[in-house]
Amino acid sequence: MNAPLFGSFGERLVAFGVLLVLFLANLGLEYHTYQNFWSKKRRYTQAQVLNRYRKRGHWVLRLRSKEGASFYTTSNEDLKDLRGRRIELLLFGQKPIFFDYLHSFYAPSYIIGVLPKNLRESLWERIASQHQSQLAKELFGTLFLAMPIQRDFRQMLSNFGISHLVAISGFHMGLLFGFFSFMLYFVLRPVWQSLWPWANLKRLVFALAFAAVVGYAAFLGLVPSVVRSATMMGVGLFMLDRGLKLLSFETLGWIVLLVLALWPRLLWSVGFWFSVTGVFYIYLFLHHFKLSKLWTFLLLNFWVFLAMLPLSLFVFGMFNPWMLLSPLLSILFVLFYPLALLLHFVGYGGVLDGVVEMLGVAGEGVRVELPLWLFGLYLLASLLAIWRPLALYAAYSAFGIFLIYQVA
Q1: How confident is residue 197, by pLDDT bands cut at 50, 70 and 90?
Q2: What is the mean pLDDT of residues 392-404?
Q3: Are strands 105-106 and 70-75 parallel, antiparallel or unpaired?
Q4: How much is the pLDDT for 285?
Q5: Burial of 186 (0-12, 13-18, 19+ CB in 10 A)
Q6: What's the longest Cα–Cα distance across the chain?
Q7: Residue 327 neighbours by CB under 8 Å, 6+ apart
Q8: Residues with Cβ < 8 Å from 300, sequence gap 6 or more?
Q9: Are 392 and 384 in contact (CB under 8 A)?
């Protein structure tokens, strides 16, 4: 059974109305939190340090508060590296406008102190203790626990076009879901066949595996990229269980609207829209190409990389020839990720230091500024490609000529 999500225009209109009300309600809750906090005379908050760097003689800290607000502050003190740690602050200065509060803002502050380490931070220390390489310490910290990573190291990942492999997203959640499903099915199947052979074991296994993924997301502290991935996965599993058509562009649109209705802050998240466009191009591939599972797995990685490259250049403006290895590394990552998990679990994660250090060979890239008109043309062609794939091929040819001209 592969039934459409809605059967009529009226049902779609009602669904849109419900999502709009939900979006406005959650936006209202955000506004209430915003007003309540900034109306206080003494504005205390707790926040995790996402990044720190020197600028004009002082430290700049990028933080995410326990309420979910992303903001910057500065300090003239000679601070130790607090990335990943939770601190308590007193904020002062002018009240930011609501839009900035939802996106990102600057707030002068006084750091009161560093909070005791929680289990997540203690696990990061355990992971780091297995490595001699600072890059490996940070890479596996962000890969397993969504801990912050230095800007220089993040640039190394960008040079290879594999930032999406390190930042926990739907790809990792899918791998974990598949691992949990396989293990649970292997363990429960003998008992299930002897006691309840008439019941649906796959439904139970998928429910337990998804519960494990949600528990993992909660353990990480509801990191935005993890939250959106878990939400989209939950909706997808529900639709599959109900026999609804999942591989549909309309369905993808409704899932995006649902995620935004639940988490209004994601409307201003570049990472969220990269995730959405990545899924869109996956749908586009599956819509037009009917291949075997093996060829789909192999070619899909190359397709998504090439399709996302114009968006990446428009936002980040940097091209490195080593990026061309990204599809191959994405394929190998399916094996690397569980192996890395196993090695760290038994205390031998350090054997991967040499592999990680190879990321430093890429060097500097080439600055490429994709013009707005070409970017807009490419997005339009991507939408038209749902019905006419030739539109995307033509737009990509124009992009390819532009890129060769810029790099040569």
Answers
A1: low
A2: 86
A3: parallel
A4: 93
A5: exposed
A6: 70
A7: 301, 302, 304, 305
A8: 282, 285
A9: yes
Cβ proximity of 358 and 137 under 8 Å: no
How high is the pLDDT of residue 227?
Answer: 78
The C-alpha atoms of residue 336 and residue 166 are separated, in whole angstroms, by: 12
Least confident of 1-5, 53-57, 151-155, 270-274: 1-5
Helix axes 389-407, 293-316, angle to 10 degrees: 50
Rounded-to-integer distance, Cα 270 and Cα 275, Å: 9
Pull the structure tokens for residue 154.
């993040």
Q: Strand 366-367 to strand 43-55: parallel, antiparallel, or no bridges (unpaired)?
A: unpaired
Q: What DSSP assignment string belongs to 208-272?
A: HHHHHHHHHHHHTT--HHHHHHHHHHHHHHHHHHTTB--S-HHHHHHHHHHHHHH-GGGGG-HHH
Give me the residue label for tokens 């994405």. Answer: 330
Nearest CA to 358 out of 164, 159, 148 is that of: 159
The encoded tokens of residue 318 equal 């940097």
Model confidence pLDDT, tens digit, residues 100-124 = 999 889 999 988 988 998 888 889 8
Distance of alpha carbon 271 from alpha carbon 268, whole angstroms: 9
State pLDDT tens for residues 71-98: 999 888 777 888 888 999 999 888 999 9
Place of tokens 């490429």: 368
Sign of dihedral through CA atoms 400, 371, 249, 7? negative
Domains of the chain: 41-116 (2.40.50)
Q: Report the distance separating Cα 206 and Cα 195, nearest Å.
A: 19
| Confidence bin at 198 (pLDDT 50/70/90) | low
Nearest-Å Rg of the Cα atoms of the chain is: 23
| Helix 224-241 and helix 270-288, axial crossing angle in degrees, nearest 10 | 30
Q: What is the pTM of this model?
A: 0.87
Look at residue 343 in the predicted model and tell me its pLDDT.
Answer: 92
